[in-house]
Amino acid sequence: MRRHAAATLAATDVRFYARHQAEVNCCALSRDCRSVLTCSDDGRLYLWDAGSAELLAELSGHAGPVKTCAVSPCGHLCASGSLDATVRIWDAAAAPVTCLRVLTGHKKSVETVSFSPDSRWLVSGSWDQSAVVWEVQTGQAFRELRGHTGAIQSSAFAEDSQYVATGAWDYMVKVWNLLVEDEVVTLEGHSGNIASVCFSVVGMLASGSWDSSVRVWLPEKGVCLFVLTGPTRAWVRSLAFSRDGLVLASAAEGDLIRIWDMSDGKCINCLQGHKDTAYGCIFSPSGALLTSGSAEWD
After folding, report:
1. Are 154 and 112 in contact (CB under 8 A)?
2. Which of 66-75, 164-173, 234-243 has the lowest mean pLDDT?
3. What is the spatial order of strands in the sheet that 24-29 belongs to?
4. Mean pLDDT score, 285-297
5. CA-CA distance, 140 to 134, in Å (whole number)?
6. Alpha carbon distance, N-terminus to C-terminus of the chain
7. How far is CA 138 from its chain centroid?
8. How far apart are CA 265 and CA 53, in angstroms?
9. Mean pLDDT on 236-263
């Protein structure tokens, strides 16, 4: 029953968070689903009340487009990465929201940031082909992850906060053990840039690519369980596992969000309603809601 509840997902109670002056690149939900963080090419981040769509705070300070953002699982912090090659950590509990730290070290645009589930670590990935794991409380670089030969566009932590996955423009996914410096698993099979990676609570790893496919892996064994494809070629832009790990949502070019059953790799629902390319999708931490965004106002 729980697995196939996703077959009944439908668009409802649509709200518009309209303030940005340029393309919105990323959004993140707080764990309690009360707030939404968005970032844009206009160089700003906005924090919104999820229920009323009221603007709660404007976060500014980056010297270029903000490419990525994240909310910590503890709910008190936000992070952002920018074309200005910096990462910022923000105190979301302060009034007004303030920038706690500016993290420097990348040489080019920061394309992805992700908090670990225990909120201790933050990983950032960049066009400079490196990822950096930062200690959140001190802002110090813990480890630099090198091995990709293309820009790193996506990142995600496993549930135990020990492993971090990175996806890059070299068509590869790498899974790094933060406790063992030389332990890294390289997952190969895609024939296009990797735009999204995410872990499930049961340890599966999904990767979405410009090659129009989603691959679901058992990363510790380096085994690909499923190759998920739609009837037409479409760049896969975003992935999200449900909280129980039983279904996977994928957003791709075109106006569809596809829902996949992780017991057999079959598509059990196609959500249609956007009028343009679906850029992102994310399940709420509770698993009750799925949020998606598109290129144009709907």
Report:
1. yes
2. 234-243
3. 24-29, 35-40, 44-49, 55-60
4. 61
5. 6
6. 32
7. 23
8. 35
9. 87
Q: What SS3 class is residue 154? A: strand
Could you tell me the pTM of the whole model? 0.89
Q: Which tens digit of pLDDT belongs to each residue from 74-118?
A: 989 999 999 999 999 999 988 899 999 999 999 999 999 999 999
How long a stretch of residues is the chain? 298
Look up residue 177 and give its amino acid.
N
Give the C-alpha separation, 169 to 279, whole Å.
18
Predicted local distance difference test score (pLDDT) of residue 282:
72
Distance CA 27, CA 38 (A): 4
For 41, 110, 115, 170, the CA distances from 227, given in Å and listed in that order, are 33, 29, 27, 19
Type of residue found at 122: L
How far is the CA of 65 from the CAs of 7, 21, 85, 90, 155, in angstroms? 37, 11, 10, 17, 19
